[in-house]
Specification:
disordered C terminus; 14 helices; single chain; alpha+beta; five-stranded antiparallel beta sheet
């Protein structure tokens, strides 16, 4: 294993990035060190002296891509103007849009619908432990995310161990669509964002919000703008009725993360009732 210095904390805030609802496989220990698996690469990420470090067997190039380090986020966010959006931008500074594996993003956000983050993480981990590949890292056993091929060969009864309810049907349907080529996730990267969302919504159980999360976090369409209950409230309270996210440009998805993180923190608006159950919801509409 190698430990590499990735960047300064001004460019990557690991707490904000891992806790802003875009990923579900990174967890902090009592020392604030995050442990997780990206693709087939387990790692631990920590801060020391204002620098972010990663311990992993994967090359630095993998992690630079995963954390989107070649994008200038200060420049990307320069067009986010207006008092409220500027507050969100400052509060969320350090969030980076992770470049997650497309199938993992699709499956994870299917699981996320009408769910909370703690439960989502539990289901995802049970999926990996039950059907992923075991790998040793830092003296412990970790599990990779199971491939679409692996999940496609399962039945709904096999997924009862996950305790994911009605989502089991949607997970298997999506896996089989990926395996047969009915859904070409790599091809969706080349499509216009709207067209990619449209293709994803052809799958049973994929609504507008889940589709937008998949294209933003799994297909690198940074202009995507997922809207859940937190975003609906923030948009209603702080933006005009005719607000169009497309006016935010190529990095509207980054603005969405700033707004979402700020709203969920309780710093920018009153939290919705039963807020602990709404974190990370992916309501199908």
């Amino acid at each position: 294993m190698n430990t590499i210095e990735l960047c300064g904390t001004d460019k990557l805030d690991i707490v904000k990035t891992f806790e802003c609802g875009q990923c579900f496989r990174w967890n902090a220990d009592e020392n604030g060190v995050y442990h997780g698996v990206a693709g087939e690469n387990p790692a631990k990420v920590f801060v020391n002296g204002g620098k972010v470090y990663i311990t992993s067997e994967a090359p630095e190039s993998f992690w630079r891509s995963y954390f989107d380090m070649d994008t200038d986020y200060e420049l990307a966010a320069a067009g986010f103007t207006g008092e409220y959006l500027e507050r969100c931008r400052e509060f969320g500074k350090g969030i980076r849009i992770l470049r997650q594996e497309p199938w993992e993003a699709l499956c994870s956000f299917i699981i996320s619908q009408c769910n909370n983050i703690i439960r989502i993480k539990g289901i995802v981990e049970r999926l990996c432990e039950s059907f992923g590949k075991a790998v040793r890292f830092d003296g412990k056993c970790c599990y990779t995310f199971p491939s679409a091929d692996t999940v496609a060969a399962l039945g709904e009864d096999d997924l009862k161990v996950l305790r994911c309810g009605y989502r089991a049907e949607y997970i298997i349907t999506a896996a089989r669509a990926v395996c047969t080529g009915e859904l070409d996730l790599q091809g969706l990267k080349e499509l216009d964002c709207r067209e990619a969302v449209k293709e994803l919504r052809k799958l049973k159980g994929i609504g507008e919000k889940v589709a937008n999360c998949v294209v933003l976090f799994g297909l690198n369409h940074t202009e995507a703008f997922p809207i859940d209950v937190w975003m609906k409230r923030a948009l209603k309270e702080h933006f005009p009725p005719d607000f169009d996210p497309e006016t935010l440009g190529r990095y509207a998805g980054l603005a969405q993360q700033y707004i979402f993180y700020y709203a969920r923190s309780g710093a920018g608006a009153n939290a919705p009732k039963n807020a602990e159950m709404l974190c990370g919801t992916g309501i199908i509409t």
